[in-house]
């Protein structure tokens, strides 16, 4: 990643779902804050256990088929489909989605995990307070202007490659 210039965009709160799931296009990553439980999964602790996670994939459970012109079945895993590289704008009927999972990696964990989108989203939008324990642990933390709620609650960062025009400047 160090060789690939990235552009970071912080999502607006009303567009948070689209930002988390924009990585479904395959050319970007999403980073977001969430409260981390003991097993690194999302939990609801008002921001007291806030950590960053990078989301690099989306797994959708669908109740209907996909157009064969845009998707191909994985040769090793039946009923797992990948979007064809030649079909970057391929889509699926939204009313077919019955579950959504995010492939995420939390900074302290060595392993990727599959998290339910709704749990990540709920954890992200409830970040409201700075942990009193951390406040007096002697470590210097960077807290956004206005505090945790105004700076982190509902915010997600989309990392995507710069266009060739942007890369020249």
State the helicity in percent bands: 10-25%
| Shape, per Cα inertia axes | globular
Query: Any low-confidence stretches, pLDDT <50, length ≥5?
Result: 1-16
- Give a count of the beta strands, DSSP E runs of length 2 or more: 9
Which band does the percent of strand residues land in? 25-35%
SS-based class: alpha+beta
Count of separate DSSP helical elements: 5
Rg (C-alpha, Å)? 18 Å
Largest sheet: 7 strands, antiparallel
How far apart, in Å, are the first and last alpha carbons?
19 Å
Describe the structure.
This protein is of the alpha+beta class and 169 residues long. It is 18% helix and 32% strand. It has 5 helices and 9 strands; from the N terminus they run E-H-E-E-E-E-E-E-E-H-H-H-E-H. It has helices at residues 16-21, 117-125, 132-135, 147-152, 164-168, and strands at 6-10, 29-36, 42-43, 50-62, 71-73, 81-83, 97-106, 113-116, 156-161. The strands form 2 sheets. Strands 1, 2, 3, 4, 7, 8 and 9 form a 7-stranded antiparallel β-sheet that branches. A hairpin with a 7-residue loop joins strand 5 and strand 6. The longest helix has 9 residues, at 117-125. It is globular and about 55 Å long. It starts with 5 loop residues before the first strand and ends with a helix.
């Amino acid at each position: 990643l160090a060789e690939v210039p990235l552009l970071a965009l912080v999502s607006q709160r009303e567009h948070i779902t689209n930002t988390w799931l924009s990585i479904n296009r395959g050319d970007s990553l999403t980073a977001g804050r969430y409260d981390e439980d003991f097993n690194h999964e999302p939990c609801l602790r008002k921001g007291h256990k806030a950590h960053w996670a990078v989301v690099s994939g989306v797994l959708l459970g669908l109740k209907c088929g996909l157009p064969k012109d845009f998707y191909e079945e994985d040769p090793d895993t039946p009923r797992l489909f990948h979007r064809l590289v030649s079909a970057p704008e391929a889509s699926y009927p939204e009313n077919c989605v019955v579950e959504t999972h995010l492939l995420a990696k939390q900074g302290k964990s060595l392993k990727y995990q599959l998290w339910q989108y709704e749990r990540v989203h709920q954890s992200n939008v409830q970040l409201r307070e700075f942990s009193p324990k951390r406040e007096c642990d002697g470590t210097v933390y960077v807290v956004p202007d206005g505090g945790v709620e105004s700076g982190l609650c509902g915010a997600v960062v989309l990392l995507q490659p710069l266009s060739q025009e942007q890369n020249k400047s």
